[in-house]
């Protein structure tokens, strides 16, 4: 393309004369023209880009908000896990510790009591819907956990104080396993392995070979030691406070074990066997409170962990549906 010639009016000559640029001025003019055009185009492009995508600061802020929301979601999951663990502790507190000590359980309504009044989380409404919802749930869960922890702490303080004032009674409670064997059959209705029909199983069966050492589960006095019907060789220990334990199908008794003899928790009092109505050697163990059978599992608190307690509890619940063939009533 041919370059256009520019003119300027010369008053002395009364005519238009062509403008002549030297090489330096032409170069400056060309560079200035392209620079100005480039700046205009760049500004236009940035304006369009910021409207569609956002400014660099906005992009960084969006990315930061996304990261924070993901972290809030992870925190929410962790809070739910903590809540589940706290609920398990509360369950053990009611069913295990408070039950054994004779304390009234704490109701679920008290443990998770809410708070009324104005919406205390309304400040979160200023955020996006997603962030607001997550913040509300998280804050609500944290407040609930704080209340539950306070109630649980008060419950443990009550248990501790009760223990300090009732140490003698607690020494007599049958709180350990009578043998070092696993539980094979729990307390409750089940098919009798010998008689074949369903009947109440009033104790817990532990795996134990003939001659396995049997321990007194709490301090007490021997009430009976001898042969009794389908129990075979039976030992009864009176722990006072209306609590009696029974150890059945024994092969024999320890030296000196007779009615009136005082025994202590953990003392070897007998040996497991296969006497009475049974299909195989094991130890049948019962706990009676005021003459009525009760679930012995509720008293095994001294030498098992909470996890083991829950496992035994589950096995105990299943015993009403399934029976192990070599167990006795």
Mean pLDDT: 78
Named CATH topology of the largest domain: Glucose Permease (Domain IIA)
Please bin the fraction of helical residues: 40-55%
What's the quaternary structure here? single chain
Show unreliable segments.
Answer: 320-329
User: Regarding CATH, which class of the largest domain?
Assistant: Mainly Beta
Overall, the morphology is: rod-shaped
Counted beta strands: 14
What is the architecture of the largest domain at the second tier of CATH?
Distorted Sandwich
Structural class: alpha+beta
Radius of gyration: 42 Å
Order of helices and strands: EEHHHHHEEEEEEEEEEEEH
Percent of sequence in beta strands = 15-25%
